[in-house]
Design goal:
348 residues; alpha/beta; Rossmann fold; six-stranded parallel sheet; binds nicotinamide-adenine-dinucleotide; Alcohol dehydrogenase, class IV; oxidoreductase; maleylacetate reductase activity; iron; catechol 1,2-dioxygenase activity
Length: 348
């Protein structure tokens, strides 16, 4: 038995689609836009503002990691002062998080132009930080109305970030395949995402438009999986490591994913066989590890700054509350997994 609910997002995909941003805001019946960007993405923010012409009535470049509420409050004040009825966000998951936080507080519509592969733009989930503590909520009001995937814009993402962000997307598709909510629609999207993301990651060495197209399309499909079905151990572990130890989001996903796959392999043989097929390999966890190594991505939590002395606490935090996962997350098992991931060993 399964249930499936399609989510009502409008997607525009292709090179140069940033130029359609004004038309997309008008399609929503909105006319006063607050443009959101981050300090790193001021230039694409300028391009979006120009393409919006007179529809742009304000600009906020202060989006920050993990959507701190103090930043959201500043942006809400600016939004109200400008009388905006829509936000257009250009950036990664951090900027998308700010757009969602504004939409859920004020009811404005959202048009998102993603520059990474995090996938937040197609989920109804918002993670926010209050006094350093991250809380997550889900609501249909949080899901952005429109997403413009401009492949040209995504080419500006530096290759090292594209590698880790691409593996972050891969993790959504992998965990969707062994989710308790798995269903044929999402399985199909997840497998197509894995094929595209693997081709895109391999193609990053030459960094062609084709590789970036595969990555962005894979990211959209994988993000849709993330928004549709519950995730397992991998996302739980990364949430813990990000929240409690401040590890960077996409690099941490990149290191942890092959190890979680190895942990789950015996308990989810069918999913692992389908993932291996999609990767053109025989063993899914080592195939993902090798893909990361070949793309020059990080392989150890040590290199991301996690102290060896934190491993035990991390294992405790990650197993403090039960959650669905193919293999039971035991404290000893997770401690072993984390140690291998910390040292950068091949998954086993
Ligand atoms: P991010 O938005 O912080 O971007 C990562 C880095 O890439 C940043 O330094 C950013 O400045 C840089 N960057 C992005 N685009 C660039 C470009 N074109 N050129 C140069 N640099 C660029 O991080 P992310 O990995 O995209 O997203 C992670 C955040 O999103 C986390 O807070 C995570 O919790 C959240 N997230 C939420 C969901 C959800 O469904 N709610 C899903 C995925 C991620």
């Amino acid at each position: 038995m399964f249930t499936y609910t399609a989510r009502p997002a409008h997607i525009v995909f292709g090179p140069g689609t940033l130029e359609q941003v004004r038309e997309e805001v008008e399609r929503l019946g909105r006319s006063r836009v607050l443009v959101l960007a981050s300090p790193d993405l001021a230039e694409p923010g300028d391009r979006v503002e120009k393409a919006l012409g007179p529809l742009a009535v304000g600009r906020f470049d202060g989006a920050a990691m993990h959507t701190p509420v103090e930043v959201t409050e500043q942006a809400v004040a600016l939004l109200r002062e400008a009388g905006a009825d829509c936000v257009v966000a250009v950036g990664g998951g951090s900027t998308t998080g700010l757009a969602k936080a504004l939409a859920v507080r004020t009811g404005v519509d959202q048009v998102i132009l993603p520059t990474t592969y995090a996938g937040s733009e197609v989920t109804p989930v918002l993670g926010e930080t209050v006094d350093g503590v991250k809380t997550t909520r889900s609501s249909p009001d949080i899901l952005p109305e429109t997403v413009i995937y401009d492949v040209e814009l995504s080419r500006e993402l530096p290759v090292p970030i594209a590698v880790t962000s691409g593996v972050n997307a891969l993790a959504h598709a992998v965990e969707a395949l062994y989710s308790p909510d798995a269903n044929p629609v999402i399985d199909g999207m997840a497998l197509d995402a894995i094929r595209r993301l693997a081709r895109g990651l391999r193609g990053l060495a030459e960094d062609t438009l084709e590789a970036r197209t595969e990555l962005l399309q894979g990211a959209w499909l994988a993000g849709t999986c993330l928004g549709a079905v519950g995730m397992g151990l991998h996302h739980k572990l990364c949430h813990t490591l990000g929240g409690s130890f401040g590890l960077p989001h996409a690099p941490m996903h990149t290191v942890v994913l092959p190890h979680v796959m190895a942990y789950n392999a015996a308990a989810a043989p069918d999913a692992m066989r389908r993932i291996a097929d999609a990767l053109g390999a025989t063993d899914a966890p080592t195939a993902v590890y090798d893909l990361v190594v070949a793309a020059g991505g990080p392989t150890s939590l040590r290199e991301l700054g996690l102290a060896e002395s934190d491993l035990d606490r991390a294992a405790g935090l990650a197993t403090a509350a039960p959650y669905p996962n193919p293999a039971e997350p035991t404290r000893d098992g997770i401690a072993r997994l984390l140690r291998r991931a910390w040292a950068g060993e091949r998954p086993a």
